[in-house]
C-alpha cells in the first residue's frame, strides 16, 4: 500500500513541477526558487543495525523563493523536518520559515535585513553557510551593509546566528574590507600581476554569568589576507588571530588563538599543481562559548584534504580540527598529450593528491599547570614544531582515459590513515586502508550509456574489507542503477553483511526525481571537513528537487 | 577617487581599532573568588541532574566542574547523578556494575537525555534556550541564573528528617514543606529520592588532569541516584492555591535499601515542583540530608 502511495506522490509531483522550470513574473518582478524533498521509510534490520522510527517515514523538505524587482529583493525558505531523517540532529524536528530576508541593492550599496549568508576571506573568522545534506545552517539573522567602490568593498554586519529554530545567545559584529590593489592605482590597472588585500574583524558579545570563571564578554578575532595572481601562478595567504576565548571546545583555557592558511598554485593547459599548508591553534570560534559539535560556529577552518566522491574512498573522511591542526596538501594534475604513444587518441589525465594532518605541538605553561588545564593559559606551542598525534593522511592517484568515442575508463588507488579518536571521538584502533577503484563508461548508442563502478577497500581495522559494485544505465534524463555493497566484517569474526540497493529516476530540465530501495550502511558524510554520522537504514527512499 | 578610497581604508582601520579596544582581554587569575556558599537553612537551593555513565569518557570532567561549583555554592547545589543510556550499560569486567535505575531511565527518557550525547546536565528541570539539557560549559551559568539571579529566600522551605533501622535496612522519612510566599493555583508535587556517594567503581576518562586515561579503576562515584521513595515523579502534596505560611507534611516509613548500598553514604533528596500548567515539572525548591 505504502509503495502505491509513494508512486502516486511521485507522479503527482512530476506533473506539478515538470512544467514549471522557468522563472515566473509577478508585478513586474521575477520569482525564482527551488524545492527539495527527501523521504525515507525505515525498516528494522538487525543485521546492519538499522532501526525503525515511531513515525515509520521521515521527511526533510524545503522550498525557497526569491522575488526580485529592480533593486529590491525578498526571499524566504520554508523548511520541514517531520520528523528529521535519521542522522540529522533531533533539534531540527518541526517546520516553519527558517530563513527570510529583505534586500536592497544598487551599484554602490547593498543592504540586507533578516537572514543572510556571509563569508570573510576563507571564512577563518566568519563564515555562515548552509549545507542541506549535512543538516547544517548557521545563517546570520540581523543587518548587513555592503558598500562597493571601484577598488574597495566594505561589509559591515550585526547579527545573531541561527540555532535550529532559534538564535544563539552571542551577538556577532563584523567588518570586512576587500581591496583590489590594481584598481586603486591607475598605473597598475593593466598590470599582469593582480593583487587583492583584505582585512576583517569580528567580535562576539556574550554575557558572563559564570560563577567559576571570569569570562571575556567581548571576544575579538581578526584576519588579514592577500591573493596574488601572475600568469598561471597564484599565491594566497591568510592569517588570523583571536583573543582569549575560554569555551567548551578548548576546555576553558585562556590562551589566544591563531591560524595561518597558505596556498601556491600554477596551472596551464594540461598541467597544474597546488600546494597548501595550514596551521591552526585554538581557533574554534562560536557564537555561544558553551557550544560544541555542529552548533553555532562563527569561524570556519577548512579540512585540507580531498573530498572524495566514490563511496569507499569517502568512507574514512577527515574532520577538520579547529583547535589543533597542522596540515599539508599537494595536488598535481597532468595530461599526457593526445595522439601520443602513452596518451592514446584522446590523451590521458593523471591526478595525484597527497594530504596529511597532524596535531600541533603543546607544552606546559609552567611546572604547576598541566597541559589544557581549565582556567589557565592551557599550553604553549612552537609554531613550526609538529605535534605527536597523526590525525590523517591520504595519498591518491587517479588515471583517466577516453579510449574512443564509446569508452571512457578511469582507475584510482588510495591509501588512507585515519585516527579514530580524533575523527570519530571514540577509542578504537586507527585505520590503515587501501582502496582500489575502477570506473568504466560505455556509451553504446547516442544518449545511452552504461556505467560500471568497482571498488575495493582493504583494511585490518574497524569493520574490515569492503567491496562495492555499481551498474548504472543512463538514457537522456532517465537513470537506473543497482549497487551491491559487501562487508567482509572484522578479521576473525563472522559478521559479514550485504547491502543491496537499487535506484531509478530521471532529470528533466531543472527537476530531478529518484526512488530507491535497499540497505545503506552506517557512515559519515562530510562537506569541507564538517562531518555528520548517518545511521544504517533499510527501506524505501524518495528524493526530488526542482528549481524555477 | 583614489583619495576617497584611501580615506575610507583609513576609516575602516580606525573603526576596527575602536572595536578592537572594546574586546575583553582577561588577566589572571582567571577564576572568580566568591568565597564559598551561603550556609543557612532558609535559602534557595537548586536541583542539578547530572546525566552520566561509567563509559562516558567526558563525564569525569563534568563532575570536576560540578565539584568546582559545589565549592562555590556549598549546600545550595544539590546534585543527583543519573546513570542513563548507552554509556551506562553494564559491559564486560571491570565495567560490569549496573548503576542504572528504572527511575533514572524514566526521567532521562522524559527529558531527552536517554539518547543524548553525554555529559548533559539539567537545572531545576527548567528549559533554557528551548532545551532542558545543557552542556558542561553551561553548568555554571545555568546554576548561577537559578541561584544568584533569584531571591535568596526560597518560595518553599523544605525540612527533611530521616531514620534508619539497620536490622532490616529500612529508611523512614518525614518531609515538611512550608510556603514562604503565595503560590498560584495548581498541582504541586513532592519527590523524594535516595542517592549514594563514594561508590568506588571504574570510570572511562579522557582528561589526564583528572586521572588515568582512558580508564580510572577506582573512580569515586558521588550522588548516584539509587531509587525513589515515592515513585519516579513523586506525589501530589496539594492541588490549589498555596498561601504564605501554609505547611504540608509527608511521611514515608517503609523504604528498604539495596544490599550493596552503604547507609553511611546515603543522602535523601526532596524537592517540590509544579505538576501542571506552563511551569510543569519545574522545581521550586530542593533539599538534601545525609541519612546518618
Task: Tell me what you see in this structure.
The complex is a heterodimer of chains A (about 550) and B (about 290). Chain A is mainly beta and about 550 residues long. Chain A has a domain at about 105-260 and about 275-300. Helix content of chain A is about 5%, strand content about 55%. Chain A contains 3 helices and 30 strands. Chain A has helices at about 1-20, 180-185, 420-425; strands spanning about 25, 30-40, 55-70, 70-80, 95-105, 110-115, 130, 135, 140-150, 150-165, 165, 170-180, 195-205, 220-230, 235-240, 255-270, 270-280, 325-335, 350-360, 385-400, 405-420, 430-445, 450-460, 465-475, 480-490, 495-510, 510-520, 525, 530-535, 535-545. In chain A, the strands form 3 sheets. Chain A has a 24-stranded antiparallel beta barrel. In chain A, strands 7-8 form a two-stranded antiparallel ribbon. A two-stranded antiparallel ribbon of chain A has the order 28-29. In chain A, strand 9 and strand 10 (about 150-165) form a beta hairpin. Chain A is globular. Residues about 5-20 of chain A have low confidence and may be disordered. With about 290 residues, chain B is an alpha+beta fold. Chain B has one domain: Immunoglobulin-like, CATH 2.60.40.10. Helix content of chain B is about 20%, strand content about 35%. In chain B, the strands form 4 sheets. In chain B, strands 6, 9, 10, 12 and 13 form a 5-stranded antiparallel beta sheet that branches. Chain B has a 3-stranded mixed beta sheet with strand order 2-1-3. Chain B has a 3-stranded antiparallel beta sheet with strand order 4-5-11, with no helix packed on it. In chain B, a hairpin with an 8-residue loop joins strand 12 (about 265-275) and strand 13 (about 285-290). Chain B is globular and about 90 Å long. The model of chain B is unreliable at about 35-40 (pLDDT under 50). Chains A and B meet through strand 10, strand 12, strand 13 and strand 14 of A and helix 1, helix 2 and helix 4 of B.
Amino acid at each position: 500500500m505504502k509503495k502505491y502511495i509513494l508512486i502516486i506522490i511521485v507522479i503527482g509531483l512530476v506533473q506539478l513541477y515538470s512544467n514549471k522550470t522557468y522563472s515566473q513574473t509577478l508585478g513586474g518582478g521575477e520569482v525564482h526558487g527551488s524545492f527539495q524533498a527527501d523521504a525515507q521509510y525505515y525498516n528494522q534490520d538487525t543485521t546492519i543495525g538499522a532501526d525503525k522510527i515511531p513515525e515509520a517515514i521521515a521527511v526533510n523538505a524545503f522550498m525557497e523563493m526569491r522575488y526580485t524587482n529592480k533593486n529590491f529583493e525578498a526571499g524566504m525558505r520554508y523548511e520541514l523536518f517531520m520528523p528529521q531523517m535519521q542522522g540529522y540532529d533531533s533539534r531540527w524536528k518541526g517546520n516553519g520559515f527558517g530563513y527570510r530576508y529583505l534586500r536592497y541593492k544598487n551599484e554602490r550599496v547593498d543592504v540586507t535585513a533578516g537572514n543572510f549568508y556571509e563569508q570573510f576571506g576563507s571564512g577563518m573568522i566568519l563564515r555562515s553557510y548552509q549545507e542541506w545534506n549535512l543538516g547544517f545552517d548557521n545563517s546570520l539573522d540581523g543587518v548587513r551593509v555592503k558598500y562597493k567602490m571601484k577598488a574597495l568593498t566594505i561589509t559591515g554586519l550585526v547579527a545573531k546566528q541561527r540555532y535550529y529554530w532559534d538564535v544563539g545567545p552571542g551577538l556577532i559584529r563584523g567588518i570586512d574590507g576587500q581591496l583590489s590593489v590594481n584598481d586603486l592605482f591607475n598605473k597598475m590597472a593593466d598590470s599582469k600581476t593582480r593583487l587583492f588585500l583584505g582585512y576583517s574583524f569580528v567580535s562576539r558579545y556574550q554575557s558572563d554569568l559564570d560563577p567559576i570563571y571570569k569570562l571575556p564578554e567581548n571576544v575579538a578575532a581578526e584576519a588579514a589576507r592577500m591573493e596574488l595572481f601572475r600568469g598561471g601562478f597564484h599565491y594566497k595567504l591568510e592569517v588570523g588571530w583571536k583573543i582569549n576565548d575560554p569555551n567548551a571546545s578548548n576546555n576553558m583555557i585562556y590562551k589566544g588563538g591563531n591560524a595561518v592558511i597558505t596556498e601556491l598554485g600554477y596551472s596551464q593547459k594540461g598541467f597544474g599543481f597546488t600546494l597548501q599548508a595550514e596551521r591552526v591553534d585554538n581557533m574554534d570560534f562560536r557564537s555561544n562559548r558553551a557550544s560544541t559539535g555542529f552548533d553555532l560556529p562563527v569561524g570556519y577552518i577548512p579540512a585540507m584534504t580531498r573530498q572524495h566522491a566514490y563511496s569507499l574512498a569517502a568512507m574514512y573522511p577527515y574532520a577538520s580540527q579547529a583547535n589543533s591542526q597542522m596540515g599539508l596538501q599537494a595536488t598535481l594534475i597532468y595530461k599526457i598529450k593526445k595522439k601520443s604513444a602513452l596518451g592514446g587518441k584522446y590523451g590521458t589525465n593523471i591526478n595525484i593528491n597527497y594530504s596529511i594532518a597532524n596535531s600541533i605541538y603543546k607544552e606546559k605553561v609552567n611546572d604547576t599547570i598541566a597541559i589544557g588545564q581549565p582556567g589557565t593559559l592551557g599550553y604553549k606551542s612552537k609554531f613550526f614544531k609538529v605535534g605527536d598525534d597523526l590525525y590523517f593522511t591520504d595519498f591518491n592517484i587517479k588515471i583517466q582515459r577516453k579510449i574512443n568515442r564509446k569508452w571512457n575508463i578511469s582507475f584510482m588507488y588510495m591509501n588512507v590513515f585515519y585516527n579514530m579518536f580524533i575523527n570519530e571521538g571514540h577509542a578504537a584502533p586507527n585505520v590503515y586502508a587501501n582502496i582500489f577503484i575502477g570506473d568504466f563508461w560505455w556509451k553504446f548508442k547516442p544518449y545511452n550509456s552504461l556505467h560500471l563502478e568497482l571498488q575495493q577497500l582493504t583494511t585490518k581495522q574497524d569493520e574490515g574489507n569492503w567491496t562495492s559494485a555499481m551498474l548504472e544505465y543512463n538514457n537522456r534524463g532517465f537513470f537506473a542503477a543497482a549497487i551491491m555493497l559487501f562487508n567482509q566484517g572484522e578479521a576473525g569474526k563472522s559478521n559479514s553483511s550485504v547491502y543491496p540497493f537499487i535506484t531509478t529516476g530521471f532529470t528533466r530540465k531543472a527537476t530531478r526525481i529518484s526512488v530507491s530501495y535497499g540497505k545503506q550502511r552506517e557512515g559519515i558524510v562530510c562537506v569541507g571537513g564538517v562531518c555528520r554520522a548517518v545511521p544504517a537504514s533499510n527501506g524505501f527512499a524518495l528524493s526530488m528537487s526542482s528549481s524555477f | 577617487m583614489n583619495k576617497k578610497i584611501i580615506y575610507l581604508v583609513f576609516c575602516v582601520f580606525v573603526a576596527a581599532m575602536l572595536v578592537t579596544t572594546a574586546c575583553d582581554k582577561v588577566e589572571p587569575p582567571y577564576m572568580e573568588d566568591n568565597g564559598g556558599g551561603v550556609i543557612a537553612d532558609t535559602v534557595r537551593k537548586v536541583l542539578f541532574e547530572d546525566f552520566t555513565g561509567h563509559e562516558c569518557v567526558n563525564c569525569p570532567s563534568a563532575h570536576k566542574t560540578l565539584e568546582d561549583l559545589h565549592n562555590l555554592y556549598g549546600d545550595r547545589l544539590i546534585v543527583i547523578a543519573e546513570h542513563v543510556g548507552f554509556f551506562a550499560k553494564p559491559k564486560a569486567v571491570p565495567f560490569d556494575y549496573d548503576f542504572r535505575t528504572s527511575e533514572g531511565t524514566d526521567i532521562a527518557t522524559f527529558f531527552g537525555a536517554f539518547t543524548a550525547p553525554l555529559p548533559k546536565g539539567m537545572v531545576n528541570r527548567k528549559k533554557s534556550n528551548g532545551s532542558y539539557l545543557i552542556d558542561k560549559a553551561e553548568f555554571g551559568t545555568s546554576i548561577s541564573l537559578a541561584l544568584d539571579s533569584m531571591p535568596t529566600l526560597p518560595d518553599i522551605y523544605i525540612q527533611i528528617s530521616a531514620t534508619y533501622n539497620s536490622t532490616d535496612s529500612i529508611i523512614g522519612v518525614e518531609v515538611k514543606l512550608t510556603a514562604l510566599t503565595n503560590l498560584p493555583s495548581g498541582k504541586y508535587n513532592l519527590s523524594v529520592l535516595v542517592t549514594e556517594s563514594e561508590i568506588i567503581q571504574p570510570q572511562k576518562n579522557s582528561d589526564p588532569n583528572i586521572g588515568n586515561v582512558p580508564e580510572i579503576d577506582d573512580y569515586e562515584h558521588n550522588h548516584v541516584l539509587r531509587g525513589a521513595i515515592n515513585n519516579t515523579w513523586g506525589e501530589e502534596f496539594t492541588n490549589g492555591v498555596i498561601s504564605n505560611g501554609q505547611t504540608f507534611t509527608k511521611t514515608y516509613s517503609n523504604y528498604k535499601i539495596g544490599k550493596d548500598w552503604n547507609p553511611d553514604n546515603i543522602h535523601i533528596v526532596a524537592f517540590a515542583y509544579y505538576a501542571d500548567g506552563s511551569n510543569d515539572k519545574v522545581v521550586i525548591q530542593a533539599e538534601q540530608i545525609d541519612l546518618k
